[in-house]
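Summary: Need help interpreting a holo structure output

Steps to reproduce:
1. Submit the protein chain below together with the SMILES for pyridoxal-5'-phosphate.
2. Request a joint structure prediction with the ligand placed.
3. Inspect the structure token block that comes back.

Expected: a single structure record containing both the chain and the bound molecule.
Actual: see attached output.

Input attached:
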Amino acid sequence: MINVGRMKSIRYISTRGQQTPLSFKDAVMTGLARDGGLLIPERIPDVTGHLAEWAHLDYAELAFEIVSRFVDDLPAERLRELIDDAYATFAHSAVTPVRAVGPVHILELFHGPTLAFKDIALQWLGRLFEEILEERDGRLNILAATSGDTGSAAIAGVRGQERVQIFVMHPRGRVSALQERQMTSVLDANVHNLAVEGSFDDCQQLMKTLFNDLAFKDAHSLGSVNSVNWARVLSQIVYYFYAAFRVMDSTGAARVQFTVPTGNFGDILAGWYAKQMGLPIERLILATNENDILARFFCTGVYAKGQVVSTINPSMDIQVASNFERWLYYKVGQEPEAIAELMARFAEQGHIELPCEQQGQVDRDIVAGTSDTQRTLATIKRYYEQFDYLLDPHTAAGVFVAEQHNELDEPMICLATAHPAKFPEAIEEATGKDLARHPLFEALAQAPTRCDVIANNLDELRAYLAARTA
Ligand SMILES: *Cc1c(COP(=O)(O)O)cnc(C)c1O
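--- attached output ---
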């Protein structure tokens, strides 16, 4: 068997240092490390010498080159097939096309089956699960909590599979009608939608409690698809390379900047890895909405939890960003003891502090800014009227922050994380017109749905799962 690893083997270690190093496949199946830390590759490959030869590869070819540097336990041909299959589901031949729009370049990440950028990671993660379970003759029961986008992308990634069942909890009546239909209209036997009588926090709490019950977790082969899974971050590194190559080619620039609308810090972390690998990224700009814990941190060094407020860009309504720990690990000099200490302090006191390298900046590579509802709506309106381009509210928050930081010469690439048709109310409020349409959603209105309602009660959830995972 020819293994992909052209270099030495690669192992995954925990940011908290208490987990035996894992192979790639084991890291994918494990998700969160057993010591509570996050899994990271033991080294980051330097691909500077390949940039010229990769600049004109198509998306799947490029994905293979990048991903294969982090995977040494899948045959090259098989890895290539999984990648090809995952991205063949995208509606655009470029997979993630880039368009020049006004002063910025928009990287469209929303051409996957559920029109959200999470498809890029979850289409491939679903196929990876299937591959690994097949080989190990295993079964996996995915438990997820969603406030909207993650649920439907996760369902789309594993629907119809024989070895995987997926249980997605959403707060009953509290996700948008469209998002609810997107999930509950999937009728495959392995898909279970659960409307929980409670809030999104209740759903998350139920999930966390069950995952911490290691006996139940092991007995029922519970797994997770949230963005702490390394395979999700890995697959997102690819489009930073893809977009940078396209924009450097069309503008003649030698370096680029990226702006990323941020929630759990997974997306921007992928860009940070791309930069460490040698992609000429001048800097990354992190955009938040009113839930601005990360923007405050990158401007002041203080990481302090606030109250979550609900906004028009709900996937950014997060106070504690689960992927932040990965970045912090490198920031504190790759010292697991320091991370364990910082995370314990944060859990206890709700805040930690790092020194600023220079005035108003904690890190040379990442700067940050915040948008709010009014600025985001105004940005949607302006881009529609001036450039005839519709931004979804997440992308628009990013574009607003990008414009505030567009003082350097390097071209600015803004990540577009959802199709505007996913958020018709915000588009109508911004433009005064009912513009946000997509044929996929028109069809949904008529589709039959299936969903079970359960109480916000751990025993009921346990019983529900136990009855279906025997
Ligand atoms: C998930 C999501 C985000 C946030 O991405 P993170 O990786 O959590 O930072 C932004 N926009 C949309 C539309 C999303 O679905």
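--- end attachment ---

Reviewer comment: The domain at 98-114+231-431 is CATH 3.40.50.1100 (Rossmann fold). The mean pLDDT is 94.
Status: needs-info
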